[in-house]
Amino acid sequence: MTFEEVYQQLNPNQKIAVDTTEGTVMVVAGPGTGKTQVLGARIASILKRTDVNPENILCLTFTEAATTALRKRLNQFMGAESYKVSVYTYHGFCNTVIQENRDLFGIQDLDPVSELEVREVMREIVNELPHDSKIKRYVGDVYYDIRDLLKVFGLMKKDNLTSAALVKKVDDKLQDMLTDEAYLFKTNSRGNKKGDLNPRLYNKDKTPLEKLREAALLLDVYDAKLRERKRYDFNDMIAWVLEALHTNEDLLLHYQEQYQYFLVDEYQDTNGAQNELLYTLINYWENPNVFVVGDDDQSVYKFQGANVENIHEFYTRYEKGIKLVVLDQNYRSSQNILDGSNAIIKHNNERLVGKVPNLNKDIVASNPAVADIPQALNIVEYPNTFQETVSITAKLKKLKKDGVPLKEVAIMYRQHKQSDDLIKYLEAEGISYNVAKTQNVLEVPIVHQLNNFLNYISLESTSLDTGQHLLFEILHYHNFKHLSAFDIARMSQALSKKWGVGWREQLNTTAQELEIDKKASKELRAFLADIEYWLKEMHNVTLQTLVEGIMSKIGFVSRALSAKDATFQIQCLKTYYNFLKEETARDPYLSLSAFLHKIELLTQHNLGLKLNKIVHGIDGVNLMTVHGSKGLEFDYVFLINCNEAKWEKEKTTLPYKLNLLLPGEPQKAMEEEARRLFYVALTRARKNIEVSYPLKDEKDKDITKSLFVVELKESGAAAVHKEEADNEEILHFLDFMMKQKNEEYTDLIKQDFVKKEVENFRLSATNLNSYLRCPVSFFYQNILRVPSAKGESSTFGTAVHSALDGLFKNLSTFENDKMAVEFMKNRFMSAMHNSKEAFTKEGLERRLHYGQNILEKYYNEYSDKWTSVGEIHTELHLKNCEIDGVPIRGQIDKVVINDGTAHVVDFKTGQVKYGKSKVKPPVVLEDNEDEKNHEKRHGGDYWRQVMFYKALIESDKTQNLKVISGEIDFIEPENDEFKKIKIMVSNEEYVFVRKQIKNTFERIQNLEFDEGCESDDCQWCNFNKHYADNRQFNSSDLLSKDSDEMDET
Questions:
Q1: What is the rounded CA–CA span in Å between residue 1040 and residue 1038?
Q2: What per-residue confidence (pLDDT) applies to 979?
Q3: Which of 33, 109, 477, 924 makes the best surface tag, with the fewest CB within 10 Å?
Q4: Smallest Cα–Cα separation from 334: which of 372, 360, 296, 361?
C-alpha cells in the first residue's frame, strides 16, 4: 500500500501523530493500536511534507526485530529511498559512531568479549580478592558472587554510573540509615532507648551495602582486565559514545547537524544510558523535533535495565511544548478481552495515568470482526498439570477439526521449561507445532556423550583410571549392539570387589570371568582398542583434528545422521565443534584439558553453548514465552500454568540491596512488572483467550494460583470454569508417560546377581539416608558400586575429620596449645595434599587457608572444655551389630562416655544454614506418604544418624552403654560463631527410626529400587530418564571395525 492509501485508513489520533512533524511529540500507544504503522507513516510524512533528506532522520528502536519490521514498512511507503533513513538499535547506532570515528575511540585492536571470557576474568578477580574481602567465599559455590557482580556492573554501565558515584550513594545511604526511623528502636526495652540505633536491623542492611561498595570498586578492575585482553564489553559502547559526545563538541555538533528529526520506538523499554544518549543528541534545540512512541503499561524488560520512569520523565522535561497523543483504538481484540486487560493493569501505581493530567488509557475494541465476541476471555481451573496438558491438547484437536488453522493458535507461558512435557505429548499425538527457543547443546545427549568421552580421554592421559568414574555411563551410551546394561552392571559389581584395580585394565578379564557373550566381548575389546588408539594419537595431532577424529571414528557423527531429528543433532555437534575452533583460534596451542575446563566453566556459570532451536511444523500451533509474544497476535491463545511461583515469585531482586538506593518499594515494583507482562499476554488474543492454572503439580504438591488470575476474576470480565480431561484421555496420557521409563533398568534390578548382592548387605546410617532419599541412586552407588570421582567438599571434609581424629587421639601428649594446633594443621594439610587431585590449583589454595583458619578457631573455642567432659573415643568402628533382625554397621566420629551413658558426636563440615533442617525429627512419628517434603516425612538425615548410632552402640552388648543424646558439631562457623546442636534421644523417636531401619532393609531385600526421587539434579534418576535418548540411534556402524588382529590380542 502507498503512503496515501495508508494515511486515509488512519483514525483521527493516528493522523495527528503523523501530521505533527515539528516539535516534541509523545505517542502513548496501547496494544493493537497500530503504533508501527504510525511510526512508518510519520517518517514518510516528514519526507513528503518537508525538504529534509532521508539521511537526516534517525530512528532508534529497542530490538533488531523492531528495526527489521520498521524498515519493511518504510520500504512499502518509499521504496529504495527508505534505505537511506538511519534506523538502528541503540547499540547499532553507537557501533556506527565508533566505526566512523575509529581513531577517536582507539579501538582498532579491540574485540568484543565473549560470555566465557567474562567469566574467566571474573574468576580471576574473585581469586585475587584479599582474605578480608566481604565478597570472598571459602565454601559452597565460591564463585557465586560473579552473577551479582556482573549485574551490578551491567546496571552501572546501563545507567552510566561510575564507581565513585555508586560508592558515594552507598556511603550516603549508610549515613542516612543512622537516623532513619526504620533502623531505630520503636520502644524502650531491655536497656535500649526509643530512638536509639537498632544494631540488628542496621547491620542486616549494612553488610550487603558494604559488599555493594566493594563491588562498585571492582568495576574498574574488571575494565582493566578486559583492556589487558584487548577486549571490550558490549555495554561499553553506549558509555564510550556518551563520554565522547560530552567531551568532544565537534563530534556532537557533527551528529546534531546530520540528524534533524529523531524518532524512538518502544520508549518505555529504554535504560538510563540510552535515555541520556537521546537527550545528548537533542539538547541543541529547546523544542527538538523528537517523536517518542511507547506504552508504560507494556514495559517488561526491567531485568535488562529498562526503566519505566523514563517515559514520564520525558513528558515532564518537555511538558510546556509537548504534543501528547493517545492511541486507544484497538484493532486486534474483542472488547471482553480488553475489559479484562484494562481491569488488570489498573492495579498498577507506576503508570502515566494519574501523573499526566486528564490521561485516559482504556483501550477500546475497534475491529468490527471481533469487537463483540462474547465470553472471549475465560479462566479455567484444572486439578493438576497432567489434566491441563491433556485438556489443552484435546482442545487443539477440536479447533483443528472445526477448521481453525493451528498457526492462528498460541500457547504461552512464563518460561520455556514449562512447555517440555506439553511438547512431548504434542509430538506423541501427532500435533504439529512451532517453537523457537535457545537450546544449550551441552544438555543434548549426543553432545553430553561426546564431551564425557573427551573428559575420559583427557583424565586417562594424565593418570591411569583417573577417569573410571565416567566409564560406567560411557559404556551405556556407546550403543553396543550386544553388550547389554545387564552385562555392564555385572562387570561394575565384580570390579568393585577387586580392591586397588582399575576398570580399563580389567574390563576384558572381568568380561571373560563372567562369561559374557562373545560378540559383546568383541565389541568391548574394540572399544578399549579405540581408547588406547586415541590416548596415543592425542599427542600427535592438533586439538581440532583429535576432536574431529573422535566425532567421526567413534561414531558420534553417524549416530547423529541416523537420528529422527538428524539435522538438529548435526547442528548440535557443529555448535560444539565451532566453539572449539573459536577457542583454538584465540589460543592455537590449547590443550584438551584446558578446552574441557572452558566447557566446564560454561556449565558452572549457566552459559552453555547456545543454539537457536527452531521447530517449524506445517500449520503448527505456536509455543512461546510471553516475552517472546510481544508484538504478535493470534486468534486463539492459551495462557498456561498461571501460578504464583511462576508469576509473582520469580527471583528478580537486585544484588547487595541495591534496591535501597533506588526510589520505590522493590517488592511492589517486581509485582507491577509481572502484572505488565500478564497484560501483554492477554492483549495478544483476537478472538479467544483461556487463562488456566492447575491446583497441583506433577508431584501432587499444591499450587497457588496467580494473584493476577484472582484480579481477573474479581474484575467480572471472566468467570472461572472447573474442567477435567476425559478419563480415557488421561489414561492414554499416563500410559504415554509410563513408556518414558527405562525398561532395561526395571529388568536389571530383578537379576539374580542383584539378589545375591543384597543377601549379605549390612545397613549403615549413610545407606539408610541414601535409600530414603532416592532408591535409584542407592542402587547404582551401593549395589552396583559405580565408581565416583572425588569431590572437593567431601575431600575437604575427610581432611578435617582426619585432623580432629588425630587431635583427640593425641590430646594428652601435647605440651601446650601451640603444639596441638600445629599438629592438627599439619595433619589436615597432609590429608589435603594426599588428595590434591580433587582440587583445582585455586581451590586447593583456598581450602588450605580456610581449613587451617577454622581448625585453629575451633580449637581455641572448645579446647578448655575437653578435659572435663568424660572418656572420649574417636573414629569408633562397629561392624557386626544387629537391631530387630537387621545387620547394621557404622563409624562414629566421637563418643563421650560417662557412668555407663554415651553421648555421640558427629562432626559436620559445610554451612550451618544448610544443616539446620537436617537435625529435626519428622512432623509426625508415622510414615505419611502424602507428605511430599522429605525432611517432614522422614526426619532430617543428621537426626536419624544420631538415632542410628544409638542402635549401633546399644546392640554391642560387650559395652553395656545407653545412648542418651547426640550432637551435631559444625566445624565451620556461622558469622564467626561455632554452632553445636544437641539432639536428645526420646524412646518414641528411636522406635520410629528402628521402623525405618527395618522397613528399608526389607525393601532392599525385596529389590525395591524402581522408584527414584525424580529430582532435577539427581544424577542417577537423570541417567535412567535419558537412557532411552542415549540408546535411540540405530546405525549399524557405530564402532571401529574389529579386525582380526584385535580379536587375537
A1: 7
A2: 93
A3: 109
A4: 372
Pick from 625, 629, 687, 626: which is nearest to 405 by CA?
687
User: Per-residue confidence at 406, pLDDT binned at 50, 70, 90?
Assistant: very high
CB-based contact 921:991 (threshold 8 Å): no
Give dist(CA 629, CA 470) in Å, integer. 42
Residues 373-404 have pLDDT tens digits of 999 999 999 999 999 999 999 999 999 999 99
Report how far residue 170's alpha carbon sits from residue 1015's, in angstroms, rounded to the nearest whole number.
Answer: 41
Q: How many helices (H) and strands (E) does the chain have?
A: 45, 23
pLDDT of residue 1035: 31
List Cβ neighbours of 593 (8 Å cut-off, separation of 6 or more): 458, 462
**All cell numbers assigned to 604:** 558452572
Residue 108 has pLDDT above 80, yes or no: no
Helices 987-1005/765-773 angle, 10° precision:
70
- Whether residue 760 has pLDDT greater than 80: yes
78 Rama class: left (phi>0) / alpha (psi -120 to 50) / beta = alpha
Does the pLDDT of residue 740 top 80, yes or no? no
542 vs 540: CA distance, rounded Å: 7
Whether the predicted pLDDT of 479 surpasses 70 = no
Tell me what pLDDT residue 1032 has.
41
Q: What is the DSSP string of 773-816?
A: H-HHHHIIIIIS----PPPHHHHHHHHHHHHHHHHHHTGGG-SS
- The amino acid occupying position 602 is L
**Long-range CB contact pairs, 172-176, < 8 A, 24+:** 173/209, 173/660, 173/661, 174/206, 174/209, 174/210
Joined grid coordinates for residue 175: 549515613
What pLDDT does 1017 receive? 83
Neighbours of 421 (CB within 10 A): 18
Spatial separation of the C-alpha atoms in residues 230 and 265, rounded to whole Å: 34
Which residues fall within 8 angstroms of residue 189, CB to CB, at 6 or more apart?
none
Tell me the three state secondary structure of residue 435. strand
Rg (CA), the chain: 33
The 3 state secondary structure assigned to 510-574 is HHHHCCCCHHHHHHHHHHHHHHHHHHHHCCCCCHHHHHHHHHHHCCHHHHHHCCCCHHHHHHHHH
- DSSP string of 330-369? ESSS-HHHHHHHHHHHTT-SSSSBTTBTT-----EE--TT
Q: Report the mean per-residue pLDDT for the chain.
A: 89
Q: pLDDT value at position 1039?
A: 32
Residue linked to cell 588382529: 1045
**Residue at grid coordinates 600445629:** 822
Sheet of strand 634-639: strand arrangement: 610-616, 433-440, 621-625, 409-413, 634-639, 685-694, 377-382, 720-722
Whole-number Å distance between alpha carbons of 240 and 97:
10
Q: What is the pLDDT of residue 960?
A: 85
Q: Where does residue 369 rank: exposed (0-12), middle (13-18), buried (19+ CB within 10 A)?
A: exposed
Mean pLDDT, residues 890-915: 90
Give the pLDDT band (50/70/90) at residue 1048.
very low
616-647: pLDDT as tens digits? 778 899 999 999 998 899 999 999 999 998 89
CB 554, CB 530: distance < 8 Å: yes
Q: Is the pLDDT of residue 743 over 70?
A: no
**10 Å Cβ neighbour count for 677?**
23
